[in-house]
Each structure stands twice: as structure tokens, then as C-alpha cells.
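Input for the complex:
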Amino acid sequence: MKKILIVAKKEFLDTFRDKRTLVRMILIPLLAFPLIINIMTTVQSSEMEKAAAKELKIGYVLNNQSSEMIDSLAMSPNYNFIAYTDTAALRADVVSQEINLGIGLTPTFDDDFNAGNQASFDLFYRQADSEEYDRFNVLLEKQEERLINKRLSEKSLAPMFIKPIKINLLNQSSLKEVIGKYAGGILPYLFMAFCFMGCMLPAIDLFAGEKERGTLETLLTTPVNRLHILLGKMIVVTAFGLISATVALIGLFLSLKMVKEGGEMMDVISGMLSTELILTLYVLLIPLAIFFAGIMIPISVYSRSFKEAQSILTPLNMAVILPAMVGFIPGIELNATLAFVPIVNVVLATKAIIAGNIEMIPLAITFITLIALAAIAVFISVRQFGKETNVLR
Amino acid sequence: MIKVQNLSKQFKLNKKQRKESNATGDYAVAVDKISFECQPGRIFSLLGPNGAGKTTTLRMISTMVSPSSGSAEIAGYDIVKQAKEVRKNIGFLTGSTGLYERLTPDEVLKYFADLNDVSKSDFAERKERYYDLLDMHDFKNKKIGELSTGMKQKVSITRTMIHDPSVVVFDEPTSGLDVITAENIIKLIRDCKTAGKTVIFSSHIMSEVDLLCDDLAIINKGKLLYTDTMKNFRAQMQTESLTEEFIRIVREN
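Predicted:
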């Protein structure tokens, strides 16, 4: 036991002195959440403001019809209406993005309208720039409402005449549940990604790296049991996975403290980060980190060099990231079957805890599955590290 | 004291290796039934061309790889059954030995002293002795990555000797070093002899062997071709120089 700690202590010191490791395992996770939240709150809202302030150019062809509708639309700010005489030119300008949208009144527009029928016009738009259409559509809907009310009042009918039923929507789920269901997957996803990244560099450096630098040979001639050397190193690999995830959590807390304008949404998110959630997250994350370490170490032990190990482990990243994305799909929930699938089970369990509807049996299966996988991974690592052909390759 | 008896090592080849080496069987024989003895207070040299099986032999002696058959005793302990005791008694140094670049000499020495169960007082005393002897005081707290090759070599030497091993194994210890840096190693090997330790070193450089060794063994393709004292080797020489004699023995067998 004492030897395991001597090895672990030295590896901690060695890893903490590596600048590359510190940046990737501490700085990036620490800044990740503040950056994401900043982008979410400030950049996005300023983009929306910018879009609203942008002038929309709308071309129109009257086709000898009255300009009444265009004139009333043109009273809204940030719109520039440009008259065209030719529909073909109008369309071409929409295509070339010279103007944002194009209106072409039909030749019977005025007659249809005055007769109390449905008058129609063509609207040339680009689906690729659907936000322009969406913005204009709000204006059109207001216009339509005004015209409906005008027609109704001419017939001496109240505006509610054409709305015989009104639905009063009464939401019975809390905002916490909503966020849990739709955004709850992001939190465990990011923790897992950071945990994986945190494990990866030390896993490569402590085995393949040590082999490449010619220090492993010396270590193996000391009277320390190989199992103890492996466990000492494994503690460090696992610990760095957890450190990365923890640093990311600290980053999340800090950014929530900083963002005050987030309003109710941010209050709910910070309320979700309960002690209970964080404890459960760690209970699941610890065996998961051991499992990560246990799949990386045999690969690193087998590799001849840092580069070789990295080139094998980097694609493995995808194998973790993709199943973790299951958490983003609404509707998939933790059940007794999915609880056996590593990574997916952690994401879904965390999501359920956030939403406040976790069930004990799938949670217990998740935990036992992770412990079993961690044990298998440690066993494989021990066997690989014991093979002289791997160690001295 | 090192006693090697009929020691053999076979490596299982995978498909790719079989293709590369044009081997017919599933196994490659790296070391084939070799026997020799190294006495305390004498320097034994294991001589052979590249790929002769020198490194594999020394790795078996140091318990890093286990033999396929045969046996060896190091300071009275069996390399298979008492591997831990063997490791306590050996110091191991190769020309390609690396050090932890982000640690300082002080930290590296402490690490290996702790791993070897060296007592605090013994550690302090030995460290000071080597720091004085090799003039290492100036850089003991600098990161190893910032040191010159010569300085690193001094750290490696101290690291090898920190647990005061009775048997010292050197695998091509001077490869890649200039003569000035290599001189430290040569001096270390001589000091080990004076201190009554058993020293075995592998080399393919005859001048080094000529300078240092008391006994020698020549191996090629895993087989022991010759073993005797250096004195007898010189007396029985059929060619003009030691190098020529070495080449002759390797070629004729």
C-alpha cells in the first residue's frame, strides 16, 4: 500500500508540472462553462438585437393594384419597400439577395378584396434565410388581424365571433422538469467528456510516455510489485479524470454566479445543482473514471510511443461522446435495460435526477454495472501490464 | 555473485514478425542455453554484435523478463522464485535509460530510494557522497529536462547506486555518450569493483572491454561462443588485435 502511494505521489507531482496537461485538464474545463454560458446569454441576445435592427428590403410589384396594403406595411420601422415594375426582375433580385423578400400582387387583388373574397399575393422568399421571412410574417399576421377586425366590424360582429373556443393553458410541470428533460443531458455529457479527456493525457503519459522516455525499464527493476506500480499510476489517471470534471463543475458555479441577467432560467439551473445531485454524480463518475482509465491503460501499455497511444485513443473519444449524446434526445429515459449500457446510463440517470424523477432500481443497476465494468477494466490493465512483451516492446 | 545456468529465452512471433524475419517456426530464440558466472570484485563483460541476445540476457538477470528455461542466481537469490529479493540487490543502468524530465535530481533520487526501502539516514548519506563525488550540488534542484547529457548521466549513476546494490548490471552503458561523459561511467564501474560488488556489463566496443574487464563472454545469435578470463583471452589470441579476435570468434562460430 505504501508503495502504491509513493508511485501515485510521484506521478501527481510529475503530471502537475506538465504545462500541456494543466492547460488541457484544468484550464479548458474551468473556462468551458463560463464560455458556453456567456455565448448563450450575451452573444445570442446581441445577435437577436442586431437582427431586429437590421433593415429588411422588400421589393413589390403592384400589377396595377392599389398600393394601400404596401403603404400600411411600410409604416413599420426598419423596413424599406422598393417598387418594381417587372416580376421577373423582382424574383431575380430575391435570388441574388439584392432584396430580402419580394411581393407580387395578383391582377385581381383589389377586386377580390373589395368583393369580400380572399385576395392573394405571391411572396418570393429564400428558405435558406428563413429568419427574414419569419420576421416579416409577424408583420403580415398583424396586418391580417387588422383586416379581419375591419371586416367583422363592417358586419357589426365582435372580434371574438370567429374564435368560438379559447384554450386556457395551465402548465403543471415545473421549469425544473422542462429543463431536466430537454437540457438535462448537456450537464452529464460535458462532465463525461471532461472526465474522459482528463484521464486520457495521464493514461498516455504514465505508460506509453514512460516507455518512450526509457524510464519504465528502471522502474521495473525496483523491488516494487508490478501490481502496485500499476495501481499507483491508475489512481493518478482516475484522479485527473475526476479533477477535470470537478474543475468544470467549479467553472459552472462561477459562471452562474457571474451571470445575473439570466433571470428565472439561471435560478432554476443553479437550484438544480443540489448537493444530492452532485453527490450522485460523483458516485457514478468515480467508477466511470476507473472504467475510462481501465480501457485506456491497456492501450497505452501496448503502444510503443506517446503518439501511437494518442492515435489509438483519440478515435475512442467518439465511442464515449456518441452514446453520451443519447441524453439530448427527449423521451429516452433510464429503464432497467438501458441501465446496463455504460455512459448512456450515467447520462440518463443524471438527467432523471435533475428532473427529479429518478427510480431506485435503474439507478442501482447503473451503479452496479459501472462497478463491474471498472473491475473488469482494472483486471485487463493488470494483465496487460504484466505481459513482458507489452511492457518492453 | 551471478550464476547463470542454461538460461534460454524464446519469444513467440506474431504473423508480421514472422514475415519480417523470414522465420519458419512460431518462436524466435533470443538466448539459447547460456551459462556463465560473475564473481564479486570482478568485472564481467558480455560481448556480442547487435541482436546477439545481450539485452535479453541482462533483462532476465534483472527479472524484467522471465526465462523460458534454465535458471540464474543473483546474490544467492533465484531470478524466478525470489524476484523481489533479486531486485533489491541489483542496480540497473542502460545507455538509453531516461529520467523524469519534469522532476529534479533530488526528487528522482528520493523516489527511487523510497521504492527501494532505503532508510532516511542511508539515503541522506549516500546522496551527499555521490553529490560530492560527481560534483552535482549545483544542479540538484534544477529540473532534469534542463540539464546537459553529462549531468543527466550523473543523476542516472546516483539513481543506480542509491540502494547500494551488491550486483550492478550495465546494458551498453556508454552508448550515445561522448568520451568525457562516458568517463563517469567507466569510473563508476571501477569504483564498484573496488567496493567488492559484482559487475556485469554488455558492450560491443572492444576498447572499453579491454580497459575494464576481468572476465568475458562472447555471444552471438543467442549462443555462448566463448567464456574465460580476460587474461586467458589475451594469451589465446590468434589475431593481432582484440577487435579482430572478437570478429574472428563471431564469424567462425
